Automatic annotation (TrEMBL):
WD repeats lie at residues 74-107, 116-159, 160-201, 353-394, 399-433, 452-493, 497-538, 539-580, 581-622. Keywords: Nucleus, Repeat, Signal, WD repeat. Residues 619-743 form the U3 small nucleolar RNA-associated protein 13 C-terminal domain. It is found in: Nucleus, Nucleolus. This is Transducin beta like 3. GO terms for molecular function: U3 snoRNA binding. Pfam families: Utp13, WD40. InterPro entries: Utp13_C, WD40/YVTN_repeat-like_dom_sf, WD40_PAC1, WD40_repeat_CS, WD40_repeat_dom_sf, WD40_rpt. PANTHER family: TRANSDUCIN BETA-LIKE 3, TRANSDUCIN BETA-LIKE PROTEIN 3. Gene3D superfamilies: YVTN repeat-like/Quinoprotein amine dehydrogenase. Residues 1-18 form the signal peptide.
Amino acid sequence: VVESTVAVFLFLYSYAVSSKIEPFYKGGKVQVGDDQEDITSFALSCDDEVQKSSRALLLKQWDWRQANCTRSWRAIHTVPVASMTFDSTSTLLATGGCDGTIKLWDVVKQYCTHNLKGSSGVVHLVQFHPNTDLLQLFSSSLDCGIRIWDLRSSQCVCVLQSHYSAVTSLSFSPDGNAMVSSGRDKICTVWDLKTRKAKRTVPVYEAVEGVVILPGSTDLAEIGVKSKDLHFITAGSKGVLRVWEASTARCVYTQTLPSTLPSASEEDENDNPRSLTYLFHLPASARLATVTAEHNILLYQLPALTTQQQFVGYSDEVLDVKFLGKGDSHIVVATNSCQLKVFELLTNSCQILYGHTDTVLTLDVFKKGSLFASCAKDRSVRVWHMDSDSGQVRCVAQGSGHTNAVGSISCSRMKASFVATGSQDCTVKVWDLPADCSAEGGIHQLTARATEKAHDKDVNSVAVSPNDKLLASGSQDRTAKLWSLTGEGTVSLLGVFRGHRRGVWAVCFSPVDQVLATTSADGTAKLWSLQDFSCLKTFEGHDASVLKVIFVSRGTQLLTSGSDGLVKLWTIKTNECVKTLDAHQDKVWGLHASRKDDKMVTGSADSNITVWSVSSIRQQELSNLLHGKKYLKALGLAISLDQPHTVLTVIKVIQKFPSFFLLFSWIHSESLLRYCVVWNANARNCLNAQAVLQVLLTHLPPEELLQYQGARSHLEGLIPYTERHMQRIGRLLQASMFLNYMCPAAGPAL
């Protein structure tokens, strides 16, 4: 009874959302926006205090820091507003409408001051001259001209004609006497605003979406600026930033693309996913911001244009997600894309990894967390390495050999020595990694050491056992299979797990027991014996396909995720679902637990990534148990939290109980053995370590102990300190015998 009570409290009972990575940008202008309904235009004032947004025929004024709408009013435009901007004083707001009119608003007194007519069609660009004394507004519409409006007379004083396609952006020189305009006609025009004439037309050979005049007061030699002449930077369909010298119309600098990313050809420029759709300057921090067609926002630091931060606005369907890096500080995500995304959890800043040429389907991470592998529809497998200092990730190895999409991958568990893959070509392959895989240098080419026709249909999942000797595979043919990896250059079949009524989606080995977990499209998860391949338990509760399964709580519980958007936590011993998390609105493809078992991450077809924490909940529970002197429950929880010091504190108390040996749950004997090695090295704690060891050695057969991971090294580490403690106790015993001899003789004298 005591043992059962303790075991129950070893389990996790709840997960709480720690953080989320959600889509926040799907295209269009970039500043700051917040509205649940469709926004047609918005603008952020220069004092960074208020935001105006236009939804249909309504203008709203927001205090965005407090997320409060402070005022709303009718826009007067008869059709939606297409563009808007503030002047440098943040007191005037200009709105350009789809009806060809421009209206100016006094933000302080809150009324319309001007109604400017004469533009043809949608006014998609409005911008104030930076010199507020001039009271000039620039605009552009469908006629591709740039209109200059005198706000004193409310008249258009000039139309600048140069472009033959939509004008996309304007940038003014610091003195306000020059301006550069960009367009999708693949030219930029340098204007003299005093004479209102074009000084030079610069062919840039790409559709340009953004242009910024570089500050003349900064040393920008690193990006080709060698003179004091006017220089500007462009962003467009080629997907790179380029610096141009206005006086010579010469490109003096071109941003270097990642080595794995091919340049866009003339034919595919229009469909280039890396094409830049927006560019703006952040003068206060000397940075540039760009937006890509893939909805990624990148911040570059001048003067070298080094990437400072990158944010992914929209990830599409999340197919897999894994913890990565030291302390699980990052996650790597496979989306419905040929790129991988590595997020830093603290900042949500993202690296985008290029290499695969088709959709990446799944991922796996090696034990130390700095090396991971990916596979894709391009029939290839790649291995990536994260630098522990810089956090930068690079591809270190790649291999190809499958004849169809590679849909599953598993890394070796003990050390980074191989990866196993499963494919829609019905085969599994084992790929050896070079010993110096993570060293600096080129990309190693991988060759499969073993290939096996494993199933009759697609291989949906593969898993390597904790000791690297076994491989499990699950297939659309409704079976899972167990393979031996000990043969030289071969994979040999050991047995078949039969029982699922539909295809098997996932397989996973227990970290502590000789069992395998599987999930299926039949809505169940099953637990199988590796000895006789029989089904031990069936877990039913999902309303649709169960897509992923992992072991948590030191192998005592299962987490499953399904097409129903749910994540369920199961207790293996009782076959009970103890928690259902309404995690997502669509299929949960990604499910992974951290190495410390204190958090998990899920990724879904609803494009959301959620990090779940159990640490804070369980720490509070442990504190309450200790305060309430419920030591038996606290012992189990402290072991599951992997807190040796707390476990030792509890053991010092319960060691006084008569039935001390009944207080252990044997499923955690491996952890206790590991703790004893640490405790035994300290003379103050050695008696407690020896007491626990006595219980373990008395009640567990030697062959079972030796199956624990690292058991031999743990036992070898115990021997020298135990011998030292025995010698110390022997000397103490001799000294105490001398005292017994001396005390009777000393008694009468005393």
